[in-house]
Amino acid sequence: MQTEYNALLKNQAWKLVKRPKDKNIIGSKWVLCTKYNADGSIALRKARLVAKGFAQIPDVDYQETFAPVARPGSIRTVMAYCAENNLEIFQLDFIMAYANGDLDEEIFMEQADHFIYQGHPDYVYKLQRSLYGLKQAGRQWFCKLDEKLKSFGLNPLSSDKCVYKLKNSKGIEFSQNVKNGQITMSQSKYIENVLEKFNMQDAKTVKTPLDPNVKLTKEMCLKTEAEKAEMSLYPYRSLIGSLMYLAICTRPDICHTVSYLSQFNENPGMPHWTAAKRVLKYLKGTKNRGLTFRPTKKPLVGYAYADWASDITDRKSYSGCVLKFADGAISWESKKQHCVALSSTEAEYIALSECDKEIVYLRRFLNELYESVDETPTVVFSDSQAAQKLVQNPIFHSRTKHIDIRCHYIREVYERGEIKINYIPTDKMAADILTKTLTFQKHDNCSTIPLMKVTNRYQLSVQRSELKSFSSSSRPVSSPKSPLDRIFTIKREFL
Fold it and tell me: Which residues form the Reverse transcriptase Ty1/copia-type domain (predicted)?
């Protein structure tokens, strides 16, 4: 506590003033926490003084609160970009980040427990800097960081305001082979923590995240209040939330299963809970898997697939989309379609349309990174030749006139020359894993298709001395002459 308190004093976070009679005074509290390195070892234990932001009054103590965060797809795309161009990567952490933001409002806070000023116990803090717990803390830190990054010649991309590029030039583990340019993203320690959290660290492993012979329905949901009260003792939603983070960051192989299980969040039954625990058993046996990117000089490519009427409850189809760059998956989605498709062709057409929207975004993102415009159409693979012809043929007829207008956006993008649809056999369709529960052999085949490669980090054909791992505590590895070296002064300025 003393270390944190001294740091806040050094940062001039507040000044002590008499308690105003006509102002809102918010409370304060100490929060004890432990910070970990990427490998799970303890980095430090610390105490953090936070404001009780729930007592803030809108339009008095705060105005805007929104603060942007980087999209997971953007992070993966940058990793792929670095692998493709053989760039070295690093991470850094800002000490007391939120306490560096400037405040626009006049905010008063109670003195910190155990540090009451002698002789002035009724005085309060008038905050001069933002503080953890304030509703605007995240936004004020982003504004401060954005201002500093721009002063060093870094400009945010219009496609993602959290990704910056020089004008002249979260528990995710990153490793890079400097010699061959290969970059791997994984979350093995996070998986271990989740297993421990839900007391599954000693469970037996399974080969697939969901049993293909088990069909989960809403009929399995609980009906009586007594059953619901008993089921409330099981942290189903908490488990799904933990799995969701894995699914959106580094584990496309569980994406469909998590999406499928999440539809029972409001009223899960015991079969749903058992199925969710099975995902943990699968993760235990595959915890060292991760996404791998390597230089290929190949363009962005997409895969779109649909499983027609696969949901036995409402007969809606599931769409799967995955996009590949630098030999790795940078974006994927498993999603139930918004309407009932009347044919497999219609389901595949809708899946192509959903995939097309992500392609348009990523093309713009990559164009900004490379500072050039790629006029070459992005290839999208589909196993439906009928859906392919439907995109290429703008004529409406009796079988397609009912399709929602939003789905026809793909025709416009196709006519602009931004995409090209190619046929691929179903057994080579990587997006199949995002639409249905597969048997072990099919699941394993999809997981090891190069575009969605979840490579075991301990099977990489590199020497340990060649592998550089990066965590929040890693030191920068760029050359002192590199333009990136200028960024490190930011950290020193904020200390």
Answer: 11-164
CATH at 374? 3.30.420.10
- Given a contact cutoff of 8 angstroms between Cβ atoms, the answer to whether 185 and 174 are in contact is yes
Mean residue pLDDT across the chain: 84
CB neighbours of 340 closer than 8 A, spacing ≥ 6?
A: 309, 314, 315, 316, 317
Q: Which residue has the higher pLDDT, 145 or 394?
A: 145
Looking at residue 215, what DSSP letter applies? -
Domain boundary among 174, 197, 218: 174
Backbone φ, ψ for residue 352 (5° rounding): -65, -40
Which stretch of DSSP H or E encloses residue 333? Answer: strand 328-336
Instruction: Report yes or no on 319 lying in a domain.
Output: yes
- Contact (CB, 8 A) for 152 and 486: yes
Last residue of a domain, one of 123, 148, 174: 174
* Of residues 353, 417, 344, 428, the one with CA closest to residue 386: 344
Q: How many domains does the chain have?
A: 2
Q: Beta-carbon neighbour count of residue 317 at 10 Å?
A: 23
Measured distance CA(361)–CA(453) in Å, rounded = 23
Kind of pairing between the strands at 454-456 and 124-127: unpaired
Over residues 338-389, the pLDDT tens digits come to 888 888 888 999 999 999 999 999 999 998 888 777 789 999 999 999 888 8
> What residues have CB less than 8 Å from 370, skipping those under 6 apart?
none
DSSP state letter for 80: H
- Tokens matching residue 60: 């008095």
Structure pTM? 0.67
Give the residue from 63, 77, 179, 37 showing the smallest Cα distance to 475.
37
